[in-house]
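Researcher: Batch entry, complex prediction.
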Amino acid sequence: MDKKDLPPPFLDLVRDDLVRSEALLHRRLPDQHEAIGAAVEHLVGSGGKRLRPALVFLSSHLCGAEQEPATFAAAAVEMLHTATLIHDDLIDGALTRRGIETLNASWTPGATVLTGDYVFARAAHLLSQAGNIRLMSRFAETLMIICNGEIRQMFDGRHGETTFAEYERRIYAKTASLIALAAESGPILAHSSEEQIAALRTYGEYLGLAFQVVDDILDFVADEATLGKPVGGDLRQGLVTLPLLKFLAVHPDHPAIRRVLDGDTSRAAVQEAVRVVAASPEAIGGAQAVAEEYIRRAKESLHGQCFRPPHGERYRAALLSLADFVVRRRF
Amino acid sequence: MDKKDLPPPFLDLVRDDLVRSEALLHRRLPDQHEAIGAAVEHLVGSGGKRLRPALVFLSSHLCGAEQEPATFAAAAVEMLHTATLIHDDLIDGALTRRGIETLNASWTPGATVLTGDYVFARAAHLLSQAGNIRLMSRFAETLMIICNGEIRQMFDGRHGETTFAEYERRIYAKTASLIALAAESGPILAHSSEEQIAALRTYGEYLGLAFQVVDDILDFVADEATLGKPVGGDLRQGLVTLPLLKFLAVHPDHPAIRRVLDGDTSRAAVQEAVRVVAASPEAIGGAQAVAEEYIRRAKESLHGQCFRPPHGERYRAALLSLADFVVRRRF
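Model: C-alpha cells for the complex:
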C-alpha cells in the first residue's frame, strides 16, 4: 500500500458514522425505476473522498448534535454533491470522473438531466429527515449559489481575462459554498450559538477555497491514473485557474499558453501548456501559497471558541488536522 | 371579451392572495446573475393558469393555515412547476409554451439545465420560508415522483403499447402528484387531522388526473392559438394518451394512426391522425367521461369532512366549483 493511500487520522473518529451515511446513500426506494437505482449506485459507489459527510459528522460531534439528524444531513450533503456532478459532467461533456464512466457517457442528455433532478430531490428528502428548517434553507441557498456561479461563468467567462477576485468568487460558488454548508451543519443541528455557527462556516469556506485551489494545482501536476480523469481538463475548456493566473502574471505572452487560450485545444498543445505551467515555481508554488494562506485562516477561525466538553478539544484537533490534510493531499 | 376569458368565480376568493405570491415569484435576489433574473421573469411572467397556487390558498383558508406560510408555499409550488417545465421543454425540444418562446429555444442546453436547477433551488428556498418540515419532505418526494415517472417513460415507453393503468400511472407522476401537493399544503400548514390531510390529498390527486386528461384531449381538439403550442404534440413524440387509447380500443388498425405510430411524424401525417381522433366520439367522449369520473371522486373526497368554521363551507364550495371548472375548461 502506497503511503498516500493511508487514511488520514481524523477519519478514524467518524468511521462508524460514515458507515451509517453510506447505508443511506445506497438505500433503494420502493417505487424507484431500476435505471435510477443503477445510476445512483454507480455514482455514489465510485467512492470520492467523502470529505463533506466527514465534515458534517466532525462538526456535529464538536457541537453535540444528535447522531440521527447528523447522519441524514451527511448523506444529504454528499447526495447534493453527486447531483451537481451529474449535471456538470453533462454540460462539460466529461466522459470519466474518479476513473469511472460518467452517466452522460452512455445515457442520453434527457435521461442524464432527469437523473440529476431525481438526485437533487433525493438529497432534499434525506435532509428533510434531519428535521431542521434552517439547514434546509441553507441547503437551498447553497444550490442557488452553485448554479448562479456556473451561469455567471458560462455567460461572462472570457479566455484569459480572469482576475484573482473573479477566480475566488467562482471557486467559492463551485466548491467552498457546499463545504461550508457541511461544516456549519453540526452547530446548526446542535442549536449552537450564532458565533459558533459563523466560526464553523468560516472554517468551511476557507477549507473549501483551499480544496479547490489544490484541485486546480493537481489538474496540472497530477498523473492521470491518480487523478481519475485527464490532466489539463480546465485548460482544454479555456478555464483559467490559479496556477495559470500566477504563471500569466510573470509570463503574460508565453506562446504555449497563448496557443491554447487562442483556441488550439489539440492534445499536443494542451500537453505542452500543462508541462510549461507544471514546471513553473511561480505557478505551482504561488498557487500552493494561496492555498496555505486559506488553510491558515480556516484554522484561525476555530481559535478562541469554547466547544462542548468533554470531546470538544478532540474534534477541534481533528478539524485542524483535516485542514492540513486538504492542503497537502496529492489526489 | 370572449366568455372563456372570464375568470372562474373561485378565483375571486384568492385574488389578493395570488397578488402576494406573484410578488414572491417576481422578486430578484441580490447576487442573482441578470440572465437568471431575465429567464425567471420570462417564465413566471408568461402567465399560466396559477391553478397550483390557487389550490394552496383555497386549502389553506379551508383549514385555517396562516397567511404568510401559505403565501410562501403557493409561490414555491408554482416555482417547482416552472422548474420542471424548463427541463421538460429542453428534453422534448419544445420551442414554445403558452405562446411564448421556451428557454431552450434561444439558450444552450447547458445554460438551460443550470437555470432549471437554480429554479428548483429557488422553489425549495421559498418553501423553507413556510417553516414546515413535513411540507418540505412532501415537496422533495413529489419531485422524486415526477422525475421517476419521466425516466420510466423514457426507458420503458413503447409506441402504441400503453395500457390504461400505465397511462394513469404516468399522468399521476407527471401532473397529479404536484397538484395533490398543492391541495394538501393547506391542511399540512394548519396542522389539521390526518383524515383532513388525506381528504385534500385525494381531492388533489383526482383533480390532477382529470386536469391532465383534459390537457390530453385539448392536444387533439384545441386550436393552436388558444393552446399556445402546436396541437398533436404528444402524437408527434410517439406518446399515446387517453383519447388515442380510447380510439385504438375501437379502431386498433386505423391506417392514419398506424402511420404516425410507425414513425411518420411529418406535418401532414400528424394533422390527419389528429383530425381522425378529434372527430371520434369514442376517443373524445370516452376520455371526457374518464375525466368526469375523476372529478366525481375528487368532489366526493371532500364530503363528510367538517372544515373550520366560519368559512369552511365557502372554501369547500370553491374547491367543488374549481373541480367542475377543470373538467369543462377549453384552454
